[in-house]
Design goal:
This protein is an alpha+beta fold and about 160 residues long. It is about 25% helix and about 35% strand.
């Protein structure tokens, strides 16, 4: 439905397609009467252009396809490191006698990561950046123990 202005008045029209020809149909002066006439006109296939509907459906499906492709690529690429920065994702709070084992060698966890909470001390391992450990390029096995309990284990490529 569209409206045309002639002089100081607006008139409502719609375009109906029948076969290859189109026809402009007068609907009235007020919007409410125009909407009533549209409802009484018949099937919606005649009211809307097939090309517009087809174009909308195509654009919608294309957008859905691109969204699905993006999420699939992100899902399968989540372990690929494109920035060169590796951060250990450890959500466990460890005691201060925790340590790391990198490729079989024992390392102390940096003291800057010790935090105080609820009257005790713990390691905040969400902040460990493997770049701070100054490891050589290659594949490394990083394990974190709290006492004798294995808390975290991961293979990191630098």
């Amino acid at each position: 439905m569209h409206r045309k202005r002639v002089g100081n008045r607006y008139y409502y029209y719609t375009t109906v397609r029948r076969g290859k020809s189109t026809k402009s149909v007068y609907l009235g002066v007020t919007r409410s009467t125009a909407l009533k006439k549209i409802k009484n006109m018949g099937s919606k296939k005649e009211l809307f252009s097939f090309n517009r509907t087809k174009r909308f459906v195509f654009c919608f499906l294309f957008f859905v396809f691109l969204s699905m492709l993006f999420f699939l690529v992100m899902y399968f690429m989540k372990d690929i490191n494109i920035t060169g920065r590796v951060v250990l994702d450890v959500d466990d709070k460890l005691s201060t006698n925790a340590y790391m084992v990198i490729d079989g060698e024992r390392y102390e966890i940096p003291i800057e990561l010790i935090k105080a909470e609820n009257g005790g001390w713990y390691y905040n391992l969400n902040e460990i950046d493997v770049g701070d450990l100054r490891l050589e390029e290659g594949v490394h096995l990083i394990e974190i123990y709290d006492g004798n309990r294995l808390v975290y284990s991961d293979v990191v490529v630098i």
